[in-house]
Amino acid sequence: MSRFFSTKYNGLTPYTPGEQPKIDNLIKLNTNESPYPPSEKAFEEGKKAMNKLNLYSDPECKILHEKLSEILGVKSSQVLCTNGSDEILNFAFMAFCDKDHPIVFPDITYGFYPVFAELNNIPYEEIPLKDDFSIDPEDYIGINKNIVIANPNAPTGMCMPLSDIERIVKSNPDNIVIIDEAYVDFGGESAVCLIDKYDNLLVTQTFSKSRSFAGARLGFGVACDSIINDLNTIKYSTNPYNINMMTMFAGYGVLCDEEYTKKNIREIINTREYTVNELKDLGFSVLDSKTNFIFAKHCEKSGEYVYGKLREAGILVRHFDKDRIMDYNRITIGTMEDMKQMITVLKNII
Ligand code: PMP
């Protein structure tokens, strides 16, 4: 730390992203990326940005907002694109939380939430998941604090029904409820259909998973106009050009090829079901996943052992050093070939 670092960041522990190692022939199943390239349309449209790079990108992000709103069935004024959904989550923490408006979230969930809270000096409370790793909606009913829930949750992969989400939103009318739907396309129920009914709901999604766009950094939020206006105030006070020209054009291309996205989602779900069955045969218990990853623990071998042995074999998964989940590994669903290779390695290990 330099002697100039502001004391307001004393004790801030930054988020630890999953590794991005440059190892030849590595099977990379550690950061929930898509194993498939983005749609050809993304390449076609993205190229059009190249000779415009002397100009700033459109701060209103018009082409993306219009296309997205058409797909989601909302008004374009109800959508805001950001540099990954991490950015809109941070904007929301900045916009709606402070020392008088604390936030709550599950004890086992996306590791960035406590970092956003600490960064912005926001008091937070972690509510334990049930023993089966599900979220108990009753814990959040009328809690009268801001709430962020990943649905499906990460790293468990488990999903809450929309009816429970609605009960939570409805019972906390004076607080913001953020539903982080980064993985919703793989089997969850989206809460976007509730935004006209509740002015305290913000739904966030990402292009990083189902749309094969993690490296392009594109996420978005959907909410009533007034929430989007507040988020825009934060955006225009930090980085009005938060979506770069290439991502804006290529992202538009992605949205013009919904068929390709749907085909990849189907493929990932099929591969997930295959992997779950094979893992169960090998003595793993696997939580019910509605995402592009699974959370699995072996009946005898420790999580660290499985992680280490897979790594030796050139397969990278994610292991968390946190008490309740140390026995587990989070395994991203790759191609069918990737998963067959992982199962072969596991058969030798176990
Ligand atoms: N929410 C959850 C639950 C995630 O797992 C991730 C991905 N790490 C994100 C949000 C952020 O994704 P991105 O910034 O790539 O949109």
User: What compounds are bound to the protein?
Assistant: 4'-deoxy-4'-aminopyridoxal-5'-phosphate
The run of helices and strands is EHHEHEHEEHEEEHHHEEHEEH
Task: Tell me, rounded to a whole number, the average pLDDT.
Answer: 97
Main β-sheet description: 7 strands, mixed
Q: Total number of β-strand segments? A: 12
User: How helix-rich are the residues, as a percent range?
Assistant: 25-40%
Per DSSP, the total helix count is 10
Task: State the secondary-structure class.
Answer: alpha/beta
Our measurement of the CA-to-CA distance between the termini, rounded to an integer number of angstroms, reads 44 Å
The backbone outline, from C-alpha atoms, is globular
Rg on CA atoms, Å:
20 Å
Poorly predicted runs:
none
Strands of the widest sheet, in order across it, are 2-8-7-6-5-3-4
Strand content: 5-15%
What does the model show?
Helix 5 (162-171) links the parallel strand 5 and strand 6 (177-180). Helix 1 packs antiparallel against helix 7 (245-255), helix 3 (85-96) crosses helix 4 and helix 8 (258-281) runs parallel beside helix 10. The chain is 35% helix and 14% strand. It is built from 10 helices and 12 strands. It is globular, with a radius of gyration of 20 Å. With 350 residues, it is an alpha/beta fold. It has helices at residues 40-47, 62-72, 85-96, 112-119, 162-171, 225-238, 245-255, 258-281, 303-312, 336-349; strands at 27-28, 79-82, 103-106, 124-127, 146-150, 177-180, 201-206, 219-223, 284-286, 293-298, 315-316, 328-332. The mean pLDDT is 97. It has a 7-stranded mixed beta sheet with strand order 2-8-7-6-5-3-4, with helices on both faces. Strands 9-10-12 form a 3-stranded antiparallel beta sheet, with helices on one face. Bound molecules: 4'-deoxy-4'-aminopyridoxal-5'-phosphate. 4'-deoxy-4'-aminopyridoxal-5'-phosphate (PMP) binds at residues 84-86, 110, 150, 154, 180, 182, 206, 208, 214, 219.
